[in-house]
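User: ok so my PI wants both of these folded by tonight, can you help

Assistant: No problem, let's get them done. Here's the first:
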Amino acid sequence: MDVREVHGGPAMMPPFQCQWCKELVTPGDLMHSLMPGYHYACALRVTVGSIGHTQGTCSCFVKDGTAEDDPPGLTRRQAAQLVADYVRQQQSPQPGRN
């Protein structure tokens, strides 16, 4: 995925509010180039769903009442970071195998 840093390129961007978590995207934060209104992790969370969905434990997959979405007590940004970390761990080190 294409990633860029806020303030990292020639066009300086002022801090702005992330569309998902509502926290500020500030200098040094990664952003997804196709979803510039989001932190990188938040763009992933919006695209692939909750950690429960990415692990196949949400109500889309589990029908017995034990479905899981985002863990309780996390902020939206923390839940997004959890998804981004999980996706990163699932990537194959071999090109073309993701």
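One down. Here's the second:
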Amino acid sequence: MRWRATDRFALMDEKHVQVIELRGNGGLGVFLRVGDDQRLYRVAPVRDPSQPRFWCLAAFECSSCGIPVSGLAIWAGWWGSAQMELPAILDTIKADADAWLADDQCVKLRQILQQPRPPLQMPLARVTRHDADARRDAALAETAERAS
């Protein structure tokens, strides 16, 4: 793996990328967080579509708890990697994500990670049947009161 020195210095002005360890994180893959944003990105090996016996790395945008926002990769690189090379590549990312992102193959991913993103939407609160029935009854009583 090679890193260009000029890219290393350019990264100093950018937001820091940190590796996040999630509880129960099994398998190969690394979660990255940019700056103090709660959004995570998972970098994980997937089959290289042009050479199915080889692998590549793909990045997926995830929620703050590590669930992919969509099944679509936002970036892919390290094409044609052998399966036995994957643990070493992922260990390199874990050791120094910023240095790994300085590699020529990661320029597009680094640009994507540094883009401002809208805040994540909060999940909708679950409403129990009891609460829903109580709200409906209150709304009906209010409507009946206004009608009289």
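The mean pLDDT is 80. Residues 23 and 65 are 10 Å apart (CA to CA). Good luck tonight!
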